[in-house]
Specification:
Strand content: 25-35%
Strand order of the largest sheet: 2-1-3-4-5
Largest sheet: 5 strands, parallel
Distance between the termini: 74 Å
CATH superfamily of the largest domain: Response regulator
Number of helices: 8
CATH class of the largest domain: Alpha Beta
CATH topology of the largest domain: Rossmann fold
CATH architecture of the largest domain: 3-Layer(aba) Sandwich
Order of helices and strands: EHEHEHEHEHHEEEEEHEEEEEH
Helix content: 25-40%
Length: 255
């Protein structure tokens, strides 16, 4: 009975490292049939390639410019049907981060053919386990992913002024534009609770972006309502009565 080859994505900023992996894969082809669907030089490029070239396993270096391998894996952890991740790196001190993210395996360079075969066989024996990257409490991302017109856009978390839940999506607002995220506001709050503050049941803001408060007369209401003003945008966001003391104290403490 013929076995379908494992579809692989190679992610490493060094061309020579990717060449060595290809050679090792050729050496173990009879034992573990594979096909390389794409290659990428950093995590950002790899995220875009996976949209066009679905794969079973990503062989990923950790230290890369732009988006490194660990953050790449953190993004995959939130994708449905994510490929398994096998980290391939010269720096074994990253092993803790790798297994916090439930990476399938961790290989230290220079990789031996026999060790690579063992890691790939693990994916064949446990396909359901291989595709399930779990989010660690320490796995805080530096970017959020936005899928737009067959592209993956990365939004720096430090640029986000607010996150607002709207129907099935969350809107991430920067000074330049809005981005639609296919994520839950509750999960974003759990991950970025130290960076964003809840001002309403459907909205989180960056406290650093707050420049003031505006009183709004609410028709039919006994008390006036308040809206928060953010740096760089004209839009004002309503503050719930429950969260009002937090926002007031925030501005008071700034003196």
């Amino acid at each position: 009975m013929m076995t379908m080859p494992l579809r692989l994505l190679l992610v490493d900023d060094e061309t020579l490292a990717r060449t060595r992996l290809r050679n090792l894969l050729n050496d173990i082809a009879e034992e573990v049939p594979t096909t390389i669907v794409a290659e990428a030089h950093d995590g950002h490029s790899a995220l875009a390639l996976i949209q066009m070239h679905p794969c079973d396993i990503a062989l990923v270096d950790i230290r890369m410019p732009g988006m490194d391998g660990v953050e790449f894996a953190r993004h995959l952890a939130r994708w449905p049907n994510a490929p398994a991740v096998i980290f391939v790196t010269a720096y074994d001190q990253y092993a803790v981060s790798a297994f916090e993210l439930s990476a399938l395996d961790y290989l230290v360079k220079p990789v031996r053919a026999a060790r690579l075969a063992v890691a790939l066989q693990k994916a064949k024996r446990h396909p359901d386990e291989a595709g399930r990257l779990e989010k660690s409490a320490l796995a805080t991302r530096r970017h959020l992913s936005c899928f737009e017109r067959d592209r993956v856009l990365l939004v720096p978390v430090t640029d986000i002024l607010y996150l607002k839940a709207e129907q099935k999506y969350v809107t991430a607002r920067t000074t330049e534009r809005e981005y639609l995220l296919e994520e839950s506001l509750v999960k974003l709050e759990a991950e970025f609770g130290e960076r964003f503050l809840r001002v309403h049941r459907n909205c989180l803001i960056s406290p650093d972006a707050v420049i003031g408060l505006e009183r709004v007369s609410a028709e039919g209401e006994k008390d006036d309502a308040w809206q928060v003003m953010l740096s760089g945008i004209r839009e004002h966001l309503p503050v719930s009565r429950r969260q009002w003391p937090l926002i007031k104290n925030l501005l008071k403490n700034r003196g």
